[in-house]
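Subject: sequence -> structure tokens, single chain

Hey, anyone have a minute? Need the predicted structure for the following. Not urgent.
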Amino acid sequence: MQAKSKLVILGMIICFLFLAGEVKPDSIPCCDIKFDMTPVPVPDPETLPSLEDIGISSVAGGPMRIMPLGDSITYGTGDSHTGGYRDDLDRLIDPEGNEINFVGSQTKGNFDDNHHEGYGGWKINQIEAIVTDRLERYNPDIVLLHIGTNDLYHFDYNQVDHAITHLNGIITKVFDYNPDIYLLVAAIIPWTSSCCAGSCGGSLVDDYNDDLYQLVSDWRADVGDHIRHVDHYNTFSDYPNWKSALMADCVHPNQTGYGVMAQTWYDHIDDLLGSSNQPPIITILEPDGTDDIANGSYTFMWEDTDPDDDAQISFYYDDNTNPGDGYTLIVSGISEDDETDSYLWDTSNLPYGDYYVYGLISDGINSASDYGPGPVTITHIPFKIEAVSPQPSDAVFAVELTLGEDAHPVSDILGLSFILNYTTPEFLQISEPIEDKIIIEPTGFMGSDIISTSRVDQGQGEIRIGLSRKFGDGGTTGYGRIVRLRFRLNPEATPGSVISFSLNEIAAWNAAKQPIELVVSERDIEVGDMLVWPGDTNNDGTVNEMDILPVGSCWLLTGPTREEASLNWEGQSASPWPDHWATYADANGDGIIDEREIVPVGLNWGRSHPRGHSPAPARTPPVGRNPYEAYRAIYRSLQNMPENEAVLKMKNLLAELLESEVESHERSIATSLAQNYPNPVSPETWFPFSLSKPSQVTIRIYNLGGELIKTLNLGLRGTGKYTTLERAGYWDGRDEEGREVALGVYLYQLRTGDYISTRKMIISNQESDF
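Reply:
Had a minute. Here:
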């Protein structure tokens, strides 16, 4: 066992000798640097030396015994010429005339007193398993504990919780052995990168050190000054160019870094050896219980002193003034040097109630605490954003704004104004006029006779809204939904895209024109995967004969297969095809659209689901693909099926389609103007048309009085049909000045030089999901 251990240690020394000669300081943070984190073997207890064996008397009294305890950093990895921090610490202590002995079963370092309990690659639970034996064997007065790096490095379980549990086990065993011992528990040093040698646990170092500090603080309540927190982490990270100046690799110090660790240890040991540490003091000034109202935020204040000028402060809130009942962290790590002695506390997520502020100040040796003289009262009314996660193919999705709640109603509200902001506006569209998109809850607590104003800035992702009851009606009390907005996703909003909504510039007032305090929320929604219901190929929510048409228009298109596809009637996640409507047409999920799509249509005939939208729009099949080939193939497959309602209806529809194919092929394409879609218009629309020859195309919109409202110059177009959304003429419902046109009946006219045709259309406030 000893021979194997020596070989491992020798290998580590050779590795770092190589690194010291070949790696430049400015390249140290690179994650490609490899180092051996393999745990050294567990020593055989029968071979461990006693105190007498290492030249120290077991009789009480004499030089103070210090046990360095931990992993490879205690051993000194990265500093191949000395014993890591132990060498420098020995030199710091001895000139002061203090006699000390390092104790432990291990040795390493080019100095006489080089004993320690440092084990490369060990985790906290391994140290916990041996700590009682080592305490009984070497009877230390002071234990220096730096442990946890390997727990986070190996990233093979819930490191922080697991590590803190076993760290608490070590502390318990130390004080069970000797309540008068002094235990110095160190925050582990920072890593030069969050990913070292293929492991990415570095981001957990901050979490572990925060929990370690809290654990030590809790123990101080029981054992007082016998346990101390040693902040190696901030000592390193505050050092200029610490990554290149102090580190040998991603996790181990170099010789200079170990010197910094030694000085930090010494500052605490020197106090134990006779220097006088002055305890800090803290006094909470506000809240003092006099009109301390926190509606969304509250600034509490304090006074503090620390003669040693090195204290850190944490603040908590509590529903009483008994810390034994527990309390909740507000903020930690505030320096005693902070000149403001105040903190803005976000109280927006706290429920109604009274809360006391509790402050805890500690210099790592002594600590003090204080409760504020009075509570702060939370009385806010919530103003929330509610939204569901949409699919990328959703025509529209709703965002609802709610005010108050059952336990927190808003009282005597007369009016409300605010701005709804949304990030990534390129993912969304919202049609104007916005009033047509606002739906006031008819039975809502603000009533149905509401005055509303609104303005949209689509480019900035901003909607301004004002709502008010009529002044003579007075205010009202209640809670619930006040506004629902409808958004349409753009194709750029792919699965995983995040859209953030926030409320800003909120003002609410009661019938006496006094302000009402509201606490607002933010909301992130993530665009979800497309859901395909096998058989509903047009995604209108119902499986019927109309689901034959998308198969024909997407005939023989190919795209991604659907993982775990089945014919069962359930929403199945699917990756969008380039033409996202074709994703639904692939009813069986095999990645190609052919006559086999008729099987899920037949199996799920007549079924419906709640996520349906307007049917897929009419479209021209891709070049070289004839939908009637699909109709013939499907018709042939239906001939071999037993006849039932589904089969008969589909066969009848296919027969009609195939008959119209013959008629259409007998006619050449003629210039014509078709009915706009959607109709009624609300407010955008498309004008389909066909051309028998290349022509300059113009579409004009008139009111019934013959006044020209808008001219659409479409330019030179070739022979063909312009009937799809991508090819038809488009109008956004505005006149030549960019103003929205009024509701009513309008005329639209196609002009091609030798052809003029006019049709009617209706503009209404009816919502269209086309």
